[in-house]
Q: What sequence folds into this?
């Protein structure tokens, strides 16, 4: 995990550079706040002795994304207030005040999901929930307390020119409602292609390309003449094993303190085992008599899969109820969960069509996407709720609200993508299997929060209002 955390650190450094370029003084403040956030999270992980599995690291990445998101919301609000003609000092206070509800609702909603995942989930799901909950609490503290105090300190020492903070003046509103049929159709086509791919694959064998963690296989113990790092195993040994098995789904784990390596592959026939032994001896000079192979069962049990699915379903129900109560409308609750399901189905379509490996990384990726998606949607709905106080034209409210939150949606997605792309470029195979689908998930989450969520709320709100009007007239 130390290598993975090093990659996270590189991604965090690039993210901070992006924030400074985009937001100037507030970006510098966000950088300092993120450094404090990261230090606090790592300290608490150490204090509570939390095991950093891949899902655990995924929880930290999502926590960083939410910490950045909180800052983006605040800074976008400050720019709007400056654009409206307020002084920088007044804009800072107003920006934090107006961003408060969106930050609280988004984080609490995700915290509810983390709580459900922890109490109902098992194994890796619990690890994800622990680090996510920890990250959420720390991110709210750093955004609402540390960022605010550092920003005010910068202003107090003389950094008061509005050019250092930027200002936003909205001159054009995009007609999202008018394009909603196009958005629905695009999503429907992608999901339909995924369903077709699943059906075709199901007829041939498995719906998805399941990994060894799911279907089991063979474990081969090999003692090499030298110590191999994970990177060297992937570059030198994996192609040799893949040539014999005809399969790229190979897991190699070096045994600490020795030259022994555990190679996991699909179940091998006797002839394939003999061929593998000979190839390893011929290529690397290992002693064939020391090689041992045994069949292994699936690491991801049926119970674990059912637990993960049940946890997500119950978490979605609790999130729906919270948003329903908090926003005082059933339409908001349903419209917050539907984009989440949309993102899951779109990502499943990519898994089915591109035959990405479905294993432990799949669970981590889906859980991360669920947390990311609901938070992005809440930000849009918070602005809709605010604008409804001054405008009762639903179409105008949605178009204006989504336009006003567009820069936040894009900036948050870009900052999260920076982290994930770095993990993909620098990570080992297991990390790449997590990062690539998550890249698609982040893009999809941005798309659904911008193009789908508000439109769904508009259609559902109109349908419920019409139904209520009919009942009243009777």
A:
């Amino acid at each position: 995990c130390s290598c993975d955390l090093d990659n996270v650190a590189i991604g965090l450094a690039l993210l901070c550079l992006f924030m400074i370029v985009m937001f100037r003084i507030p970006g510098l403040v966000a950088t300092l706040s993120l450094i404090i956030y990261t230090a606090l999270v790592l300290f608490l992980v150490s204090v509570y002795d939390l095991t950093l599995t891949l899902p655990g690291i995924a929880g930290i990445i999502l926590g960083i994304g939410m910490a950045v998101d909180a800052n983006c919301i605040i800074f976008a609000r400050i720019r709007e207030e400056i654009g409206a003609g307020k002084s920088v000092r007044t804009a800072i206070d107003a920006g934090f005040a107006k961003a408060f509800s969106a930050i609280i609702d988004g984080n609490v909603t995700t915290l509810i999901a983390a709580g459900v995942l922890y109490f109902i989930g098992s194994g890796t799901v619990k690890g994800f929930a622990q680090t996510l909950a920890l990250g959420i609490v720390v991110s709210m503290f750093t955004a609402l307390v540390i960022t605010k105090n550092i920003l005010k300190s910068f202003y107090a020492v003389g950094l008061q020119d509005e050019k250092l903070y930027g200002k936003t003046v909205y001159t054009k509103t995009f007609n999202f409602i008018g394009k909603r049929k196009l958005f629905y159709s695009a999503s429907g086509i992608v999901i339909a292609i995924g369903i077709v791919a699943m059906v075709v694959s199901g007829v041939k064998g498995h719906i998805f390309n399941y990994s060894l963690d799911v279907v089991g296989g063979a474990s081969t113990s090999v003692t090499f003449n030298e110590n191999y790092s994970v990177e060297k195993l992937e570059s030198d040994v994996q192609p040799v094993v893949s040539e014999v098995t005809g399969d790229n789904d190979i897991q190699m784990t070096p045994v600490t303190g020795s030259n022994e390596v555990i190679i996991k592959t699909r179940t091998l026939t006797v002839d394939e085992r003999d061929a593998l032994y000979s190839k390893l001896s011929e290529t690397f000079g290992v002693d064939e008599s020391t090689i041992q192979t045994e069949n292994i069962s699936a690491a991801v049990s049926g119970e674990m899969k059912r637990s993960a699915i049940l946890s997500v379903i119950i978490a979605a129900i609790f999130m729906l109820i919270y948003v329903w109560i908090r926003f005082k409308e059933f339409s908001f609750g349903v419209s917050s969960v539907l984009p989440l399901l949309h993102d899951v189905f779109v990502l499943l379509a990519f898994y089915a069509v591109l035959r990405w490996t479905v294993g432990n990384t799949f669970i981590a990726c889906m859980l991360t996407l669920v947390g990311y998606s609901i938070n992005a949607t809440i930000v849009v709905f918070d602005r809709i709720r605010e604008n409804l106080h001054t405008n009762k034209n639903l179409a105008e409210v949605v178009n204006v609200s989504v336009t006003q939150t567009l820069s936040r949606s894009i900036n948050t997605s870009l900052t999260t993508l920076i982290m994930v792309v770095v993990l993909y470029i620098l990570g080992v195979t297991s990390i790449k299997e997590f990062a690539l689908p998550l890249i698609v998930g982040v893009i999809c989450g941005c798309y659904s929060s911008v193009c789908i969520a508000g439109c769904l709320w508009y259609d559902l709100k109109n349908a419920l209002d019409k139904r209520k009007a009919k009942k009243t007239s009777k």
